Amino acid sequence: MMRVSCLNNISSVGLNHFTSNYQIVEDQNQSELILVRSAKMHEYPINDNLLAVARAGAGVNNIPLDKMAQAGVVVFNTPGANSNAVKELVVAGMLIASRDLIGGFNWVKENKNDPDLQKNVEKAKKAYGGNEILGKTLLVVGLGAIGGKVANTGVSLGMKVLGFDPYLSENARRMLDHNVEIIEDLYKVYGDADFISLHLPLLDSTKNFMNKEVFDRCKDNVIVLNFARDLLVDNQALKDALSSGKVKKYVTDFPDSFVANLENVIYLPHLGASTEESEENCATMAVHQLMSYVEKGEINNS
Ligand code: MLT
After folding, report:
1. Residue nearest atom 4 of ligand 1, based on CA coordinates
2. Among 208, 209, 258, 271, which residue's beta carbon has the most beta carbons within 10 A?
3. Do 33 and 294 form a contact (C-beta atoms < 8 A)?
4. What is the whole-number distance in angstroms between the Cα of residue 59 and the centre of ligand 1?
5. CATH number belonging to the domain at 2-81+276-296, selected among 3.40.1550.10, 3.40.50.720, 3.40.50.12780, 3.20.20.480
6. What is this structure's pTM?
7. Looking at ligand 1, which residue's alpha carbon is closest to its atom 8?
8. Domain spans, the chain
9. What is the pLDDT of residues 236-260, one digit of tens each?
10. What ipTM was reported for this prediction?
């Protein structure tokens, strides 16, 4: 019997895929297998029995990969299993930022008891007007499972889409709409983009990817979307770019207090992958990865 522990709440639909040879236990120090979502595994000791860890999600920056490799523990993630959920939220973020839906919503909330509400709607129309995304340029940085879908959706919404990915696989390239223009030199196109959406993993080399130099090259009033990882954006450079008007809005799924205190930031509490469908997909994929590894020695990460 293999013992499995869940460091986070993992969808029961996924857990039900375990056969009777697997038992869910509370104590991770006793288990051969671990399922994790966002818990920081750097803070957990690695027990001698541990064989494999599966992350029900794409990013693995909450798992100490070096430590796992040294201990011979295999680490899986579930790329693609939550990509539609994240893509849909990125598109929502783009629309919310372009049309000031938050301003409009708050206006109605604040004025809902005003007897002249209907009359004052004209003022709100002026204050919370916006722009359409049709015909605008979207730059997608990183064309993996999520970035590729964001790029294709941008095309279907009538946007001009530029995509950058120095590690673009043949398979990912095949999945892209032929109207996505693949860019070789990012620096040359920052100034063309009305929207920039980040879809990079967080690595030492991508930390502060959006820094002062990058912001300086952007078009005035660019809208930046970050549903990937908070540390991809340099906080001070972002603050300066928002106050100078270089960045019109920053839409982020990572609400730390620094960002939450800035003007023109729309922040969400890491909701990108939080749909019922995505949680079920990720958990199901992770459970099958663990069982295939234990039973057949397979290391299957796609
Ligand atoms: C991911 O890396 O895929 C997301 O962070 C998933 C999550 O919200 O757990």
Report:
1. 57
2. 209
3. yes
4. 6
5. 3.40.50.720
6. 0.94
7. 273
8. 2-81+276-296, 83-267
9. 999 999 999 999 999 999 989 999 9
10. 0.92
